[in-house]
What does this fold into?
Amino acid sequence: VAPGVLAVVNVSGALKYTTNADTLVTMTGTAGADTYVADFLSEVNLADSIDGLGAVDTLQLNFAIANNTATALAQLNGTSITAVEVLTFNTNDQVRFTTDGIASITTVNFGSGNDQIAGNTEVGTYNFGNGTNSYADVAGATIGAVAITSGTGNDTFTFNADTTTNGTQLDGTDSIAASTGTDTLNINDGAAGGALFALPNVITGVDAINYTAGHANDGLVVDNVDVNVADDGETDFTVTDGTAAVNGFAIFDASA
It folds into this structure.
């Protein structure tokens, strides 16, 4: 700035939680991508409120929450979160919750702490880091598209029965991309008797697939793409009869 010229300086409000009641918004008046940061759980309180306004905004937590019977939002003391799309756990401690419970969140990023989603009910992208991670949805829920990635480690992904003729939450709108390690996919089929479940071609890096039939004469259809999704190109399948009725459901159509 030249001498004698008045400079205008816009000072952005701090986007960090404190131990006091915080109302954190994009103070500069822009609708850009913002990151809200909390270093300790004790900083995130019911009286706090963040509003991401426009763009893709991130809530970064530099700590873990570890109750696998409660939502992430409940463990964050029911704090107010609006128009924030990404939840990032910047920690290698174990993170556990049922589902995130935050309406605006579409992506959750984890560290490398053997993390767990114990009962998901929401559409979203879930990026696990290295470690022994696990994902499971809630039987009977209507969820929609779920995308899962995971790093090195022995991970487990469980898709339970839904209420449609598809029989399980896993379908062609979902995706699972596992890295190296012994990764397992569990499929629990709840379709009406005699329905066939065609394993969708949306899986990579999964080494073992366990299919459990929920009704008589349910069936699993597997093609050539499905049997080559493991790290070593050889996927192990286990088919379990989950009913007392006579069942002839083991169907492998590896010729497509």
About this structure: Residues 5-13, 25-30 have pLDDT under 50 and may be disordered.
